[in-house]
């Protein structure tokens, strides 16, 4: 049985208005076998939840630390949560 992981993260820096949400969604879909969502918060940060095989979640976090070309990530606060067994897509929430 695969080792599953679920995270909730808040990303700070220059992460709004630079296609960060689309970058994250596309990265999650490219990595594959991940479910979750990403959205902007009113304070200028980006919030994300992701679940899937631990290796895939860790790969997504590494890509999110880099961010899109015009973004600049200054920090990510990650809270590991109990996996819920969710499957499905990774989407942008508004």
Account of the protein in words:
The chain is of the alpha+beta class and 94 residues long. The protein has one domain (4-81): Alpha-Beta Plaits (2-Layer Sandwich). 27% of the residues lie in helices and 40% in strands. The protein contains 2 helices and 5 strands. It has a 5-stranded mixed sheet, covered by helices on one side. The chain starts with a strand and ends with a strand. The mean pLDDT is 96.
Which helices and strands occur, and which strands form pairs?
Layout lengths: L3 E11 L5 H12 L3 E6 L5 E8 H13 L5 E10 L8 E3 L2
Parallel strand pairs: 2-5
Antiparallel strand pairs: 1-3, 1-4, 2-3
Q: How many domains, as an integer?
A: 1
How many runs of DSSP E, i.e. beta strands?
A: 5
From the helix content, strand content and strand pairing, which structural class follows? Answer: alpha+beta
Please give the CATH class.
Answer: Alpha Beta
CATH topology category name: Alpha-Beta Plaits
């Amino acid at each position: 049985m695969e080792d599953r992981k679920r995270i909730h993260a808040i990303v700070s820096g220059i992460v709004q208005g630079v296609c960060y949400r689309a970058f994250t969604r596309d990265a999650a879909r490219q990595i594959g076998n991940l479910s979750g969502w990403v959205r902007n918060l009113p304070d200028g940060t980006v919030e994300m939840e992701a679940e899937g095989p631990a290796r895939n979640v860790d790969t997504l976090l590494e890509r999110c630390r880099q961010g899109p070309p015009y973004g600049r990530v200054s920090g990510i606060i990650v809270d590991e949560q109990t996996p819920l067994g969710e499957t499905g897509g990774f989407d942008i929430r508004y």
